[in-house]
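Structure ticket #2291
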Amino acid sequence: MKIAYWITTALLALAYLAGGYFDIAQPGDMGKDLARLGYPSYFFVILGVWKLGASVALLLPGTPRLKEWAYAGILFNLTGASATHLFVKDPIGEAITPMIILAIAIASWATRPASRKLAGPWL
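Resolution: structure written out below.
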């Protein structure tokens, strides 16, 4: 379980570090691609900062509550990304990609060790 946790968490953190960078920097024609989705470019800058924060939160030791918030934010972000691609009638692959990353996030969350879980009877 520990190996599965670290593999999925590393993949997720890497995806969110890269995504955060691209959302903030918006290199090349990315600005046009993002505008096509119907959001202003500053929205992606804000989203990029949160993505970078989530990736750091996932890797920090001893912050289980922060990790829960990061996982929740990742869930909201990825389901919203998938829905956005469906709403603008992008090819289905564009909507499936966030769901694949979400599956990795769920695997990371489900395999996390006790030291990285929020204590309580509800989890």
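Closing remark: Residues 2-112 form one domain.
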